[in-house]
Design a protein that fits this description.
alpha+beta
């Protein structure tokens, strides 16, 4: 009976989608090159479903743009950078309508730490977490500028 329960638990864990399983630190982890991290993000949008029904776009030339449906009259614009320690950071200024003009406020710099495993797969760990998540197969990171229409319309409206 014990063997059957152990086997069933193992089968259930193996059946979890890749994006659900996290590790304390991938086996053989080492610091990735900045090029590996850039390739994982450039030209993609990371969707923030739970937080705001929006996301952040990582554009070429280090441009970052963010928008949230829950605060649809504001947008974040700034840059994203990658350092030689495996950190990808974004630093945004948030803009919103303020008496017929654009108000603005600098946001907090946010960084995500990255490693590559022994097979050169890129993993990331978010601030305050100890788990590592594989980037490949992450449904929250999709090719393209998902919220471009909303960001461009808001930039015109705010005059920025």
């Amino acid at each position: 009976m014990f063997f059957r329960k152990t086997w069933l638990v193992g089968l259930l864990i193996a059946a979890l989608p890749v994006g659900v399983a996290a590790d304390p630190l991938p086996y053989g982890a080492k610091t990735p090159t900045p090029r590996q991290i850039i390739a994982a993000y450039v030209g993609k949008t990371e969707t923030w479903e739970a937080d705001c029904q929006g996301g952040i776009y990582f554009g070429a030339n280090s441009q970052a743009r963010a928008w949230c449906a829950q605060s649809s009259d504001s947008l974040g614009a700034g840059e994203w950078t990658v350092d030689s320690y495996g950190r990808m950071c974004h630093n945004l200024t948030w803009y919103w309508p303020n008496n017929g003009r654009a108000g603005s406020s600098p946001g907090e710099k946010s960084c995500i730490l990255h490693v590559v495993d022994r097979f050169d797969r890129v993993w990331r760990s978010y601030p305050g977490q100890t788990e590592w998540w594989p980037i490949k197969g992450d449904k929250a990171l999709t090719r393209g500028y998902t919220y471009q229409r909303e960001v461009l319309a808001l930039k015109r409206k705010l005059g920025i």
